[in-house]
Amino acid sequence: MAKTEPCMSAIPDKPKLEGLEEKWGPVWEEQGTYRFDRDGAERAEVYSIDTPPPTASGSLHVGHVFSYTHTDTVARYQRMQGKRVFYPMGWDDNGLPTERRVQNYYGVRCDPSLPYVEGFVPPHEGGDGKSVKAADQQPISRRNFIELCERLTVEDEKQFEDLWRTLGLSVDWTQTYRTIGEESLRASQLAFVRNVERGEAYQAQAPTLWDVTFRTAVAQAELEDRDQPSAYHTLAFHRTDGGGDILIDTTRPELLAACVALVAHPDDERYRPLFGQTVRTPLFDVEVPIVAHHLAQQDKGTGIAMICTFGDVTDVIWWRELDLPNRAILGFDGRVISEAPEEITSERGREAYAQIAGKTVFSAKAAVVEALQASGELVGEIRKINHPVKFFEKGDKPLEIVSTRQWYIKNGARDEQLRERLLAHGRELDWHPDFMRVRYENWVEGLSGDWLISRQRFFGVPIPVWYPLDAEGNPVFDRPILPSEDQLPVDPSSDAPAGYSEDQRGVPGGFQGEVDVMDTWATSSLTPQLAGGWERDPELFDLVYPYSLRPQGQDIIRTWLFSTLLRSELEAGQLPWKNAGISGWILDPDRKKMSKSKGNVVTPAGLLEQHGSDAVRYWAASAKLGTDAAFDPQNPTQIKIGRRLAIKLLNAAKFTLSFDDSGAGTVTEALDRSMLAGLARVIEGATRAFEAYDHARALELTESFFWTFCDDYLELVKERAHNGEGQPQASAVTALRTALSVFVRLLAPFLPYAAEEVWSWFGEGSVHRAAWPLAAEAGDLAGADADAELLSLVGGALVGVRGAKTAAKASQRTPVTLAVVQAPAETRDRLALAADDLAAVGRIAELRIEAAEVDAVTVAQIELEQAEA
């Protein structure tokens, strides 16, 4: 570990929290307090953290402070345990969120067909730009657009780093990476090339979930259901055998032209006789079969449904498993394509299709419904409903399903052996809390398709593939050209493959470059490799991988945790970490999850400035992993409690250090020994809690005993420590100094600024490089026979004496001529051991401690000295 120089500082007259961030942040940076020291390190002494790279678009919110503080308490604890802590920070700056922010911030949009403009100046800069409509955004070249993405992410990342530093994250800022940086580009492309070479990545033409706004494919992990208004329409399909009509209910009549079959459950007695027969579709007059499949719901609508290519994910399953034709009618822009399916041959059907060609889904639905009403094939009333609809988690319009050529990575959805290995890794991983494991297992077991990783976007890692062109200039997709590893990184849109020259781009017999980029998760899934120097710094990678901890939120178990584990299994056949720490969510006062999309987030800068970083950290650290926490910015009670604790630490330290310690050495007095015995228990409990990744329990144990120390022990021994003589006085000071040293170190992971300030008054170097306290530090001084409960008993008597004075409306300084304390017989002699301290703090001239049949220590009688008239 890096050494730190002593940084002794004078105790201020009035200790305060204000200014501690500005005082200690630069000191930690200058002295390398949190720097990872790899010189001569062995893997066993390294604790490595796969830190979540925040999305570098917009601003951090209080939820980030919540979860990152949890991780930081662990990092600080492990560092004090003597570990060399590898705690990097990354920035997830490629992908759709960044593009969207750049569009709004600068008022532009990307048009790859446009030429690059040297020295381009965007139409405006600043604000959120949301008042600029998409149609009014200035189109610019891809290169100009990427330059703006680069410019804005660098600015955002600097602001993020400043906030993280203010919060006191003990990150090693020399270990940072960007998911769009050159090293990340190379690692992402290298992993992909190896996936292709091993047969784990492949390209296919298939139905794809598609966001019509962003014109990009969307993976299963990026979906979310949102309740949307809709309506059931009952349509009449005509049996070709003349047996009448079959009625089906649908919410998507606009896809009627894409209907390829009707489907019912194989056990449905109503429709079993019809399987294998055909019907003609209303309006478009196309003959389609009636088929059976177990996913058809007998109790939904009329029990029989139309299969369209493609209305929803179930349509895709039916289409694939029943080997049905593809009759897709929606284009990438979400509009009905101009050319009708060739199966629509009747004049009536052609005319009906002409009425919807080029229309949006919404307008096409209105046109089809109107035509069905006119033809009499819409039966009964339209029935309004609300139902869940698939959305891209960052999108504003329902997803459609279109047929596209995309790149996929196998994830176990169709490979039972891979799925079982992934489930086995999930059982091998230590989850904190353990119940989060079920969410992972449910996700793996519920996968319905391989991981779609290609995106039709601009600011991302280029998919490193070219395609040869045949004699007619058509791409040969099943013979992709891959770069060699030493060529990486490459951009196929501007680099030529080996063996070709740039003038062969786009000409027959030449090549064309892949224009898609990778899903941002395809890069983020490699964060252990990116931060750890995979294939770049083997010595570092061997020291940190597999990592000790992956901390993250519960909502991205299905994306980040799963995808990282998948890539590690495919590349190395092992877990990428030993532990997973899963934080809960921050809820607003209405118990709703805080998120940018809901508009209910709170930015932390104001909280940190108003209350101080230690206070905000206390609030965050008070919540266990996996537990949601409500936060009301108008009444931040926990933050105020944290601030009070930090101030109390400063004041208690100043008070403790005010006593003469020239005779300190051994502890002989019963009350001092009791306090230290109790403190030894706290050290043991807090250490066990941290080892179990329960930082909140460690804080709870420490804080509770610290207040007992301040409210009871300090009060009881201050007279002896201040005015006592000989060994009794030395015993008190020794116990006080020992306890202060222990408390500062126990609280250091939670209140780093106050702890560092106090440590600088009496300790050497940084408290954050000091050794985590051992129970023996307090326990050995206390002695094996110390009565750990005595302090609590005497504290109860002190509360009684104070209460009696308060009831008499007397000052706590009022002398007491007589106080009679009653206690159970087995307690009486123990209590008598601390009689002198109790009498001194209570200003009691005569103190009697009597055995009585009482349940607890009780002040039975008290006589106050009468003030002179």
UniProtKB/TrEMBL annotation:
Its main location: cytoplasm. Residues 478-509 are annotated as: Disordered. A motif ('KMSKS' region) lies at residues 593-597. This is Valine--tRNA ligase. Coiled coil: none annotated. A motif ('HIGH' region) lies at residues 54-64. Catalyzes the attachment of valine to tRNA(Val). As ValRS can inadvertently accommodate and process structurally similar amino acids such as threonine, to avoid such errors, it has a 'posttransfer' editing activity that hydrolyzes mischarged Thr-tRNA(Val) in a tRNA-dependent manner. Its EC number is 6.1.1.9. It comes from the Bacteria. PROSITE patterns: AA_TRNA_LIGASE_I (PS00178). The keyword Ligase applies. The keyword Kinase does not apply.
